[in-house]
Amino acid sequence: MSLFSTPDHAAQSPLLSTLNPEQRAAVTLPAEHALILAGAGSGKTRVLTTRIAWLLQNGLVTPGGILAVTFTNKAAKEMMTRLSSMLPVNVHGMWIGTFHGLCNRFLRSHFKMANLPQSFQILDTQDQLSAIKRLCKQHAIDDERFPPKQLQWFISGCKEDGQRPANVEARDDETRRKVEIYQMYEEQCQREGVVDFGELMLRSYELLRDNDPIRAHYQRRFRHILIDEFQDTNRLQYAWIKMLAGQGANASPDMPGGAVLAVGDDDQSIYAFRGARVGNMADFVREFHVQHQIKLEQNYRSYSNILDSANALISHNGNRLGKNLRTDQGPGEPVRVYESPSDYAEAQWMVDEMKQLHREGIDRKEIAVLYRSNAQSRVIETALFNAAMPYRVYGGLRFFERAEIKHALAYLRLLENPNDDTSFMRVVNFPARGIGARSLEQLQDLAKATGCSLHDAVSALTGRAGAAIAGFVAKIDVLREQTSGLNLRDIISRMLEDSGLLAHYRAEREGADRVENLEELVSAAESFVMQEGFGRDAAGMTQSAGLTQSPASQGLSGEAIEQYGIEPTDLTFGDTGETLSPLVAFLTHAALEAGDNMAQAGQDAIQLMTVHSAKGLEFDCVFITGVEEGLFPHENSMSDRDGLEEERRLMYVAITRARQRLYMSHSQTRMLHGQTRFNLKSRFFDELPEEALKWLTPKLPAPAAFGGAGRGWQGGNASGYSGGYGNQGSSGFESTRYPAGGTVRVEKEVVRRDESVNGLVVKQKVFHAKFGEGTVLTLEGTGDDARAQINFPRHGTKWLALSVAKLTPVP
DNA sequence: AAGCAATGGATTTTT
DNA sequence: TCCATTGCTT
């Protein structure tokens, strides 16, 4: 159970003086496995970094004995920044990083044992998809039956579950074929010397699993393993941790691994769709026989009206580890709820409210607008733009994902590895060199027949087409020679000129931004070289980290090094910068850290983002918009309980972003996919404590489309409509009549609510031979086109063509 | 080989 | 509605 006593020598430490008892207990835990349940705004990162600092300061571990894992580069950086502000320690020498960053470091150190070229390149999601498309074309795979996107999802999913093609259980022909493609994809990657994100993890895991000395080495080395956002780990990541901690099937009793400190919040698990398993938390407690569990429930972020709302909402989820946020701050402002007639009006209201907040002295960057899906940003952007209010949208392409940058990177990769066919295909005819699809197909067939790369197959190519491609290859080869020995900056500048990329974009009418980005790439490379300290004195770095250790002290004999191909880099804690060329390091950096995705960073601007991307952030004022059935909870997640509970957690995350003021709004109508949708307010409103809320718009008439064109929105606030949706009047907009989803699609203004269609009227009860008794929700069209949306209690909502369905009116 | 119209699909995202 | 992708035209 929780350990609240603190060792004497630690109590005096200034590191601990400002921590609350739970935080202090977590920081000063003994070297045993522990789970920290860290609520939103409870000082989680602080606990993690202070824990590391405390361990180091008290000589309980050396910097080399720490392994600290995060999911994002941002989190890793923050941890390093905070740590170095607490202690004079070289954080870059320590194993603090993302899962993928650390796996990359590990694989570079043991590239021979991992059966990889030392300068292997990393495929990002885009690259992976194009590699799969290329593979499919090559093997004439029907892309109707096997869409590349779906194959990508399949392959990534297998890897996340730790499965190689041989391990995948294929029960049907389709899966068998997918597994074959998976197998071919692996061979292709291996041949080309590239790995995708999943492969970084999987291959690291397998190397640890299958190589006893390497596993033993790392198990002995990492005395303290700290995992951030543990609820987001997938199967493979959990297995990887288990392996490193010596808890897996390969655990050796004589040589116990390090202590695992898992920090997470099951209530903030919102990434199930990408393979995250909250269940890892419970598994961890069971499989590691965790004796220490500490809950951090004291919240330092929000006023209690906000926290009460969050607590009340999340209490509707089952299967929680259980946690309640509390604060010493007062109730603060009530949570304001606004109902608007349209998404447009919702945005208008928001802009007005924001202006007021800004007048009251709140910075624009302290105001965030959160939405469930990206498509919702459009209306809001328009409203902000028209009001001339600066704003910033998160999401979209990041720097290293832009087309022109990807092109430049492809050239750079070809300099390093001519066998990188993905890069070859990307730029062989860009800028255009008169190389057509026909001749490239020829080249690909030739390469396939000889089992070599496209680059190597060129020499065997004949004819005029062959000459053009040979010209390209020669260009790359010449460039490689000319840039050898140059520094990174000069390599990139030279490449940008000689490839013709710059010339191409300079000639393009709208190419100015792209030219700018390419020039930015040179600066990015320069600052990368500065930061990573290439050319820095390696010995000096080792000393400053206080980490100078002989191979033997790290558990490896010189013999092991000979025998198992463990590179010296690993023994100086695997800093890849020591042995890799700056170019390879930069390319790796580009793949693992795609860069910023915010436009106009730094300006005082309203922050727009999805709820997902708001995780981990906080703002003085937060607007949660589109809180409607079908949108939030999203219709695709509402069918099963797990999906709905994840939506609820998502809402929990959204609510807990706010420090002072929280607004939640929903709209009766919304433009989505070119159609006006009529949405009901979200069920989540019913799960919030009424006493913490303030309804700004308790009264609105039923939407005009339901009542007839004449009645507008404006008069709404004055009419005597109370308590949720209209149960007065005959327009019949009753929430109870609608099934989950509550959305009525309106097509070309043919919806009828006030007249009969083929003898039916809305709200009428009908009988269907198969579905039983149901209620008509919507009628649209006329004659043979007439359709009715009917809610059958047993079978859900159906759209039935009235010319086909046999319906009997029920009195 | 480039440019344009038709087509289809449209939660959420990091590495 | 609006975006990316694709097939077809010039």
Which features does this protein show?
single chain, alpha/beta, Rossmann fold, Arc Repressor Mutant, subunit A, 5 domains, 9-stranded mixed β-sheet, 6-stranded parallel β-sheet, 23 strands, 41% helix, globular, disordered N terminus
Which structural class should the secondary elements be placed in? alpha/beta
Q: What shape does the CA trace take?
A: globular
Count of alpha/pi helices: 30
Query: How many strand elements?
Result: 23
Q: Please give the domain count.
A: 5
Distance between the termini: 63 Å
Strand content: 5-15%
Most strands sheet: 9 strands, mixed
CATH superfamily of the largest domain: P-loop containing nucleotide triphosphate hydrolases
> What is the mean pLDDT?
83
CATH architecture of the largest domain: 3-Layer(aba) Sandwich
CATH fold category name of the largest domain: Rossmann fold
Radius of gyration: 30 Å
The low-confidence runs, each spanning 5 or more residues with pLDDT under 50, are: 1-6, 535-578, 704-752
CATH class of the largest domain: Alpha Beta
Work out the helicity level.
40-55%
